[in-house]
Records
---
Amino acid sequence: MRAGEPFAAPDRLLDDTTLEASAVVANSAMNRERQLAGVNSYTRELGFNPLDWLLTRTRRSRQATMGWLDLCCGTGRGLRQAADALARDGLDDRVTIVGVDLVDFFDPTPARGQALRLTCASITSWSPDRRFDLITCVHGLHYVGDKLGALTRVAGWLAEDGQFTADLDLDSIRRADGRPVGRLLATALRAAGFTVDTRRHRIGRRGPGPVSLPWTYLGADDRAGPNYTGQPAVHSYYAEAPGAR
């Protein structure tokens, strides 16, 4: 959309099942080989090393195991590196790592030890069998249809004092007429217990809790074009509840 052009809803919206078959979403060629640390890594994208974070919590906790869930994990390469490090140090029985991705294109090299489990599934329908101390989603929400629904679900997967952090482009969440929900959405997310950093396009949360947001998902547009990352992304459309403005 060129500057100055009015916002408009797309001529068709996709449900999540159709969206997940889109070439924009089900793309095994995009950057999916993120390392644990280094230039193209979780550490660089998140601003902290997830494995170091978990090990620090492990030393302070009496829990039998700590859990890290990575949504939209790509090949799982960085998760395998974390699992290898845990096995090397004899700690793979203290940490469980779960990676979930829509595309079954996982790194063929098996991880050492027993810490890692990779699952091919949609995060809009998949549910874990445990709560997690750390949940991450690096640039994955850009390709999810019902982004607000995913955030609502994730809030229920956190352990007490668990940490969630993800990239979120608020501009990609839109009203039925095509306008971004914008500041109203940021305010509602903060009221629901999330932290929102609009400058860094980052959302977070500490601890579990019920989430109720005043929008109903309508569908998604896979023709939205590049977002702030420069990569094609997905716009998600919502109807507002009365009084949400």
Note: The beta strands are 66-71, 95-101, 116-120, 132-137, 158-167, 173-175, 194-197, 202-206, 215-226, 232-240.
---
Amino acid sequence: MSKSERISGRGIPLVGDDIDTDRIIPARFLRCVTFDGLGAQVFADDRAQASGQHPFDLPQYQGANILVVNANFGCGSSREHAPQAIIKWGIQAIVGESFAEIFFGNCVANGVPCLIAEPKAIERLQALLRENPQASMSVDLETMQVRCGDFSAPVFMDEGSRQMLMSGTWDSCGQLIQDTDQIRATASKLPYLVWVS
């Protein structure tokens, strides 16, 4: 199972409250059979309107893996495509003022921590990332701290989600694979799974 205890790398600031799932991945991209390729379409309309100046297009943020957002991020429809698009772009953790509940649940179900920080801490993080896009950044689920350069601040997450991420139990497929021997033993005892010619 895949554990998410500490994510390190670089950050990308995305300023604005109430960024909904239709802005994250517009509805026309929901017809895909798999989530492959969604990363290229993340924030497609916002990026087109920004004419190359959207943070997800700027060269200094390419390769960043920690997204810093404001309030009510991921509101709107419950599409799982939204966190999937962010993940496929390369984001491994999100720090924000607050998250829409279903978006938060979809992120945790995909192993992506959504951590809450005070508005002033978010404002400071976004300013630091604008000033120095190459600053090292990390989120630590054990100490519940976010760091960017020399700045650090506490982050919050409900304990159940935190434990699921740290233990790897968010990963239902990983749990199944881990218990393959038990699955085979149980299956061998089920009469409807034993074929008799």
Note: Helices lie at 21-24, 44-49, 81-89, 101-108, 119-131, 159-167, 172-178, 180-188.
